[in-house]
Amino acid sequence: MPWGAGVFVKVLAFNSYGDSELSDAGNGAVIITYADAPVSLIETISARSATSITFSWTAGATNGGSTVSGYRVNSDGALGVWSVIADNVVGTYYTATGLTAGLTYSFKIESENEFGYSDYSQEVSILCATIPSKPA
């Protein structure tokens, strides 16, 4: 059964004297779980600046039976210490700002649905840099 499908079950009771009759079908539980992690994180090179990095991703293959309501962006801050830098991101792109040119920043994304957060996407590491200025 696919995620989000209704499930109708019947139950029987039993003891040493035998089995009961089947109950009426339940009212339809729904199969639901976390969404798949986002995939294909990639820098948007055309938006590159000396102090910001823009990147995008693709939604995971399944939403876990519940609409993806947003994404959570995590970064290592170029220091190897992971933290959430943005929550409830709508859309599949993000611009990290206030960065230091010459440092490499790593990012990973989580999908959110009504059940909670997905696993982390694969991380992507991006050098915060631009083309140098013309020599004088």
Total strand segments: 12
Question: Which radius of gyration do the C-alpha atoms yield?
Answer: 23 Å
Structure annotation, total helices: 0
Strand content: 35-45%
Give the N-terminus to C-terminus distance in angstroms.
66 Å
For the sheet with most strands, the description reads: 5 strands, antiparallel
Supply the helix-strand structural class.
Answer: mainly beta
Topology-level CATH name of the largest domain: Immunoglobulin-like
What's the CATH H-level homologous superfamily of the largest domain? Immunoglobulins
Listing every helix as H and every strand as E from the N terminus to the C terminus, the arrangement reads: EEEEEEEEEEEE
Poorly predicted runs of 5 or more residues: none
